[in-house]
Design a protein that fits this description.
Helices cover 29% and strands 17% of the residues. It is built from six helices and eleven strands.
């Protein structure tokens, strides 16, 4: 049983930082986010009552997305922000307080450890896992805007080939709200490979009620922002991950900018 004093103490042990930042001063005008990079869950949570196998599923993280993000950061010389905790504890791409923020059901799986948690625990997870990530992103965006540096946001995700029994034919999707031009440019670049089935706003759509990064960090600031989804079976091998990193590096309309002195 964890005491209140222990709960109030700074995270340590199997509590990593909420955000891993790569190449923070990169010259590219693209800023990469990967909100579902990790399936890590501190032992205190007892896997939220789930079998260990569930932590390897999409319900716990976006399989392959972190690896693509890391490669893109290096290829583009772009800043990247990756999450440190499983989306099952708190989803960094859902508004706080929304049904998907701390899910009690994910896809077809009940999440026992999220049922009936009190407001103190909700606040604790937000303060440890959610807020530090988004505050770090916001700080970089504020700094770049103050320096007059052009910025575009690309958030990296992956999706399951089959969802609740329904097959998904797309290889990738580019989701957007306000940034239709950026989405179209990325899709144009990807379609140089005629074998790819890619489209806008599949397999999901951006919604202010169910998304955070694109509306809050992008649209509300006037920064073009899109969410890229890649089908997970295409990221099941290292060669597949590298192939998609190369594709996106070529497709993204990125421009290096001089860092302000």
């Amino acid at each position: 049983m964890t005491s209140q004093a222990e709960k109030d103490s700074p995270p340590q042990g199997d509590w990593p930082e909420a955000v891993e930042v790569l190449n923070e001063h990169g010259r590219c005008d693209i800023v990469l986010l990967c909100e579902h990079a990790s399936n890590h869950m501190p032992s205190e949570y007892g896997q939220l009552g789930l079998d260990a196998s569930h932590l390897q599923r999409h319900i716990a993280w976006d399989i392959g997305a972190a690896e693509v993000t890391r490669l893109l950061s290096a290829r583009l010389d772009a800043p990247a922000f990756l999450s440190g905790y499983s989306r099952l504890l708190i989803d960094l791409n859902r508004p706080l307080g929304s049904p998907g923020s701390i899910p009690v059901l994910s896809e077809d799986t009940n999440i026992p450890g999220n049922v009936g948690i009190d407001e103190a625990e909700r606040t604790r997870r937000a303060e440890i896992m959610f807020s530090p990530f988004h505050e770090r992103v916001a700080a970089l965006l504020d700094r770049r805007m103050a320096e007059g540096r052009p910025t575009r946001i690309v958030t990296m995700h992956s999706f399951t080939p089959v969802f609740l029994g329904i097959a998904r034919p797309w290889h990738a999707g580019v989701l957007h709200a306000h940034a239709a031009d950026l989405a179209a440019a990325i899709l144009f670049g990807l379609r140089t490979d005629a074998a790819l089935n890619v489209a806008a706003n599949v397999p999901y759509v951006i919604s202010r009620d169910a998304d955070y990064a694109v509306p809050i960090h992008g649209d509300d600031r006037g920064i073009p922002a899109v969410l890229v989804e890649i089908r997970q079976d295409l990221l099941s091998t290292r060669s597949g991950i590298e192939e998609w990193a190369d594709r996106l590096a070529a497709a993204l309309p990125a421009h290096e900018t001089e860092t302000a002195s």
